[in-house]
Amino acid sequence: MKLNDIAHETYAALSANKVRSGLTILGIVIGISSVIAMVSIGTGASNTISSSIESLGSNLIQVTPGAQRTQGFGASGGRGGAKTLTNEDADAIATQIADIEAVDAQVSGRYQVTAKGTNTNTSVTGVTSSYPQIRNVEVEEGSFISDTQNSSASKVAVLGPTTRDDLFGEGATGIVGQAVRINGMEFKVIGITVGKGGTGFQNQDDIIFIPARSAQRYLSGDQYLTTIAVQASTPEAMTQVQADVTALLLDRHHISDVALADFSVLNQNDILSTASSITSTLTYLLAAIGGISLLVGGIGIMNMMLTTVTERTREIGLRKAIGAKKSDIRAQFLAEAIALTVIGGIIGIALGWLISFAVNLTGLVTTSVSLSSVLLAFGVSAITGIVFGYYPARRAAELNPIEALRYE
Amino acid sequence: MIEIKDITKTYGEGEAAFQALKGVSFTIEDGEFVAIMGPSGSGKSTLMHILGCLDTPTTGKYFLDGKDISTLSDEELADIRRLHVGFVFQAFNLLPRTSVLRNVMLPLIYAGVDGEERVARSEKALVATGMPESHFTHMSNQLSGGQIQRVAIARALVNDPSLILADEPTGNLDTKTGEVVLGTFQKLNREHGRTIILITHEHDVAEHAERIIQLRDGLVVSDSKQHARRHVKHAV
C-alpha cells in the first residue's frame, strides 16, 4: 500500500466522523499547548530571576554579619542582625586579598526622608565610591559619591529615580544642588542614578546613597557595616576570593571554628545556582502538569481508535478478503492515530504559543517559547500517536477475516 | 484450475469437535461456471472459505493453478487472495462514503498498482459489468442494490483473478435485480471466459450455472454438468 493511498484512506476515515475526530484532536491540543505554555512560563520566570540576580553586579561576593552569639547559653540573635563587620575589616579585605577588583563597605537602614514638604520612607545606603562599579549603577545626572566625600563624611546624597519621583515629582529635573532631609539632617543632592527596574520583591530604584562614613556618623551612630561587597577580578577567582575572605575575617575576629563564624560570605554564583535550581524544579513541575493532560489526550486517542476498529470490523474483514496484509491494516489504523496527534500537535503548538504570548502581555513574566520545547512537544505528540494507536491498530490487523466478515 | 482432494475441516477439539467437511474432492477447470448448493449446515460456507483462501483445510490438498495452498501461512494466503481470487459477498460489499471507482480500485491499491493503469483497469472492469460511466464517481451509498453488486463484481474482476467466488450474491436482492446480477455472471463467464463459483441454497439461482455440486452434511452428494437451464436474456 502506497503512502498517498494511506493518506487518502486516513482523510476519508477521519472526515467521516468529524465531531469525534475533532474532540479527540482537542484532547491532544490541550495537552500539547499546556506543555508549551507551561514550559515557556517556567523558562521565562527563571530568566527573569537570573537576570535580576545578575543585575545586582558581576562577580559579586557579599559579606554580611552573622548571628550575634553570646557566651554560654544565651539567646542567639537573628542572622544578619549582628554588628560584627567594621571599616577595618573592609580595609583589610581591600589590602590583603588578591584577585579583587573593588571592595565596597555598606551601611544601610530605612529612614524618613523629606524635601520641600513631601516625604517618603526609603532605604538609605551608605556606600563608597566603588559601589557603582560593583553594582552596575550608572549616574544619569550629576556625580556619584567620591572618596574624599566619604573620608570627610560629607552630607551629600545620590537619589534613585523612584525616590526622586516621590520627593520632587515624576521626572523632575534640576534636582542636583537641592537639599533633602534624612532623619532630620540636611543632605545636598549631588546626583541621580539611572533606573534599574524592579526585581519583583524590591524596587532597586527606591533608594538614597550617601557616603558610608556619613551614614555611620549621622544615622547609625556606630562603627559597624551591614554589608561588605567584594568584586572578584574574574568569575574563576570567585571561589578562591570567597575562601580567602572567610579565612581573613575568621582570623581578624579570632574565631577558629568556621561553624561559629559571626559573618557569612555569599557568592553570587551560589545565589544564582540556588535560584536556577528552584526555577528549573518549577519548570519541571509545570511540564509534568502539561504532560499529564497530554497523557489523558493520548488515552482519548486510544479510546477513539478502539471504537473505530470495532465499528469497522466488517470493513476490515472485507479488506482482508480482498488481499490486504496485516501490515496494510496496521499501517492504515496507525496512520489515523498519528494524523490525529499530529494535527492536534500543530494546533496545540500554535495555541501554546498564543497563551505564552498572552501571558507576556500581562507583563508578569517575560515568557519565551524555545525551539527545543516546540520540537519536544511535536515529538511527544507523534510518539503519543504511535504508542496509543499501536494497540488498536494491531488489534485490527490480527482480526480473523472470516469472523470479521460475519461480525454484526 | 482448481483441484481439491479429500478435504476435511474440523472446528474445535476433543468432544466438542465438529467436522464441517468430511472429505470433499472435485476439480474445476478454467472457464467453468459452477454452483455449489446445499442447505445451511451442509458445509458450503466452510468450503467457500477454503476455496477463497480465507482458511486452510484440516486435512487434504488444495491446488490452485497447480500451486499447493493448503499449508500456507496467513500472510501468504493474503497474497493468493489479492492475486488469484475475487470475492462477491451477500451484504456489506462496498466501503461506505467512497466513490464507485475508488471501491473497484481497492485490490489494486493493495497490489501496489498506481496511477493511470489503476484507473484504466478499474474502468475496464466496471464497463465489463455494464456499469454506466456516469455512475463511476457516485458514492457507494447513492447506489441501488443491483448497482452495488455490479460494483462488487467489478472489484472482484479488477485483479484478473483465477476465479470469482460469489457467496449468495442475490440474497439481498429482489428477483428481478437478482436476475440482472446473475446475467452479469453469465456474460462474464461466456464472453470473458471467467471461472465463477456461485455459493447458494436456492435452486433457481443455481440453475444459472452449468455445473451444480450439491453438498450435504459435509459431503458431496451430487455433481452434475448441465446446460444452464436459465439464461438471462439482454443481460446488462
From TrEMBL, chain A:
<dbReference type="Pfam" id="PF12704">
    <property type="entry name" value="MacB_PCD"/>
</dbReference>
<feature type="domain" description="MacB-like periplasmic core">
    <location>
        <begin position="21"/>
        <end position="248"/>
    </location>
</feature>
<dbReference type="Pfam" id="PF02687">
    <property type="entry name" value="FtsX"/>
</dbReference>
<feature type="domain" description="ABC3 transporter permease C-terminal">
    <location>
        <begin position="289"/>
        <end position="401"/>
    </location>
</feature>
<dbReference type="InterPro" id="IPR025857">
    <property type="entry name" value="MacB_PCD"/>
</dbReference>
<keyword id="KW-0812">Transmembrane</keyword>
<dbReference type="InterPro" id="IPR003838">
    <property type="entry name" value="ABC3_permease_C"/>
</dbReference>
<dbReference type="InterPro" id="IPR050250">
    <property type="entry name" value="Macrolide_Exporter_MacB"/>
</dbReference>
<feature type="transmembrane region" description="Helical">
    <location>
        <begin position="21"/>
        <end position="42"/>
    </location>
</feature>
<dbReference type="GO" id="GO:0022857">
    <property type="term" value="F:transmembrane transporter activity"/>
</dbReference>
<keyword id="KW-0472">Membrane</keyword>
<feature type="transmembrane region" description="Helical">
    <location>
        <begin position="371"/>
        <end position="391"/>
    </location>
</feature>
<keyword id="KW-1003">Cell membrane</keyword>
<feature type="transmembrane region" description="Helical">
    <location>
        <begin position="333"/>
        <end position="359"/>
    </location>
</feature>
<feature type="transmembrane region" description="Helical">
    <location>
        <begin position="282"/>
        <end position="306"/>
    </location>
</feature>
<dbReference type="GO" id="GO:0005886">
    <property type="term" value="C:plasma membrane"/>
</dbReference>
<keyword id="KW-1133">Transmembrane helix</keyword>
<comment type="similarity">
    <text>Belongs to the ABC-4 integral membrane protein family.</text>
</comment>
<protein>
    <recommendedName>
        <fullName>Multidrug ABC transporter substrate-binding protein</fullName>
    </recommendedName>
</protein>
TrEMBL record, chain B:
<keyword id="KW-0067">ATP-binding</keyword>
<keyword id="KW-0547">Nucleotide-binding</keyword>
<dbReference type="GO" id="GO:0005524">
    <property type="term" value="F:ATP binding"/>
</dbReference>
<dbReference type="GO" id="GO:0098796">
    <property type="term" value="C:membrane protein complex"/>
</dbReference>
<dbReference type="InterPro" id="IPR027417">
    <property type="entry name" value="P-loop_NTPase"/>
</dbReference>
<dbReference type="InterPro" id="IPR003593">
    <property type="entry name" value="AAA+_ATPase"/>
</dbReference>
<feature type="domain" description="ABC transporter">
    <location>
        <begin position="2"/>
        <end position="235"/>
    </location>
</feature>
<dbReference type="GO" id="GO:0005886">
    <property type="term" value="C:plasma membrane"/>
</dbReference>
<dbReference type="InterPro" id="IPR015854">
    <property type="entry name" value="ABC_transpr_LolD-like"/>
</dbReference>
<dbReference type="Pfam" id="PF00005">
    <property type="entry name" value="ABC_tran"/>
</dbReference>
<protein>
    <recommendedName>
        <fullName>ABC transporter domain-containing protein</fullName>
    </recommendedName>
</protein>
<dbReference type="GO" id="GO:0022857">
    <property type="term" value="F:transmembrane transporter activity"/>
</dbReference>
<dbReference type="InterPro" id="IPR003439">
    <property type="entry name" value="ABC_transporter-like_ATP-bd"/>
</dbReference>
<dbReference type="InterPro" id="IPR017871">
    <property type="entry name" value="ABC_transporter-like_CS"/>
</dbReference>
<keyword id="KW-0813">Transport</keyword>
<dbReference type="InterPro" id="IPR017911">
    <property type="entry name" value="MacB-like_ATP-bd"/>
</dbReference>
<dbReference type="GO" id="GO:0016887">
    <property type="term" value="F:ATP hydrolysis activity"/>
</dbReference>
